[in-house]
From TrEMBL:
One of its GO terms (molecular function) is acyltransferase activity, transferring groups other than amino-acyl groups. Residues 5-132 form the N-acetyltransferase domain. The lineage of its organism: Bacteria, Bacillati, Bacillota, Bacilli, Bacillales. InterPro entries: Acyl_CoA_acyltransferase (IPR016181), GNAT_dom (IPR000182), N-acetyltransferase (IPR051531). It comes from the Bacteria. This is N-acetyltransferase.
Length: 185
C-alpha cells in the first residue's frame, strides 16, 4: 500500500498529479516532468535529513497512484499532505493510505501530532476530514498555529490528529473487527 519514494515512480505520478482536479491541491507543484523528478529527488534527500516523511501510495497491483507526506516536522509534530490521482478518488485508497501512514508515524516514528491544513474552499477534503472520528478541528485550540497558516491568500481550517485519539480509534476498530469475525465464525 505504501513505499518509500523512488525516482522510478515519477512518470506515473507526474501524469496523475497534473490532472486539473488534483494539481491545485498538491503542495509541491511541478510544471514539467523534469521539475517533478527534481522535486522528488529533493524530497528523498529531505527525508534522509529527517525534515519530512514521504511515501508513494500504491494500488493493489503495486502501481503508484499518489503520495502521502508529513511535512515541516518539528517537536514530534508535522503537517499531512496527500494526493491521489483522479481515477482513484472515492475508492477507499485515501483511508487505507492514511491508516498505514499513521501507524508508521505514531508507532514506528516519534510523531505525536499530525496537523492537516485544508483550504476552506476544498469542500471534498473538509468533508472527508470531518468524517474521521480521530480528527479534531483545531482553529481555536491551536489559535497561534491557525493564524500562522492563514497569513497568505488562501484561508485554511486547521485539524489535529493526536496519537492518543488515533490509538483509541484503532483499538475500537480492532474490537469491532474481532466481534465481526466471531459473528461470522
Amino acid at each position: 500500500m505504501l513505499k518509500k519514494r523512488e525516482l522510478q515512480d515519477c512518470q506515473a505520478l507526474y501524469e496523475l498529479m497534473v490532472h486539473p482536479d488534483v494539481f491545485p491541491f498538491v503542495r509541491h507543484k511541478a510544471y514539467s516532468y523534469e521539475e517533478f523528478l527534481f522535486i522528488t529527488k529533493q524530497t528523498i534527500e529531505a527525508e534522509e535529513r529527517g525534515e519530512l516523511i514521504s511515501r508513494t501510495i500504491l494500488d493493489e497491483w503495486g502501481n503508484p497512484i499518489g503520495t502521502i507526506n508529513l511535512f515541516d516536522i518539528e517537536d514530534g509534530a508535522g503537517f499531512l499532505g496527500t494526493w491521489l490521482g483522479k481515477p482513484y478518488h472515492g475508492k477507499g485508497y485515501n483511508q487505507l493510505a492514511k491508516d498505514a501512514f499513521f501507524n508508521e508515524l505514531f508507532y514506528e516514528r516519534s510523531i505525536n501530532t499530525i496537523f492537516m491544513r485544508i483550504r476552506k474552499v476544498n469542500v471534498r477534503s473538509t468533508k472527508a476530514a470531518e468524517k474521521l472520528p480521530y480528527v479534531t478541528l483545531a482553529n481555536e485550540t491551536r489559535k497561534r498555529l491557525w493564524e500562522e497558516i492563514n497569513q497568505g491568500e488562501d484561508i485554511y481550517n486547521l485539524y489535529e490528529i493526536s496519537k492518543d485519539n488515533y490509538t483509541l480509534y484503532a483499538m475500537r476498530q480492532q474490537k469491532l473487527d474481532d466481534e465481526q469475525q466471531l459473528k461470522e465464525a
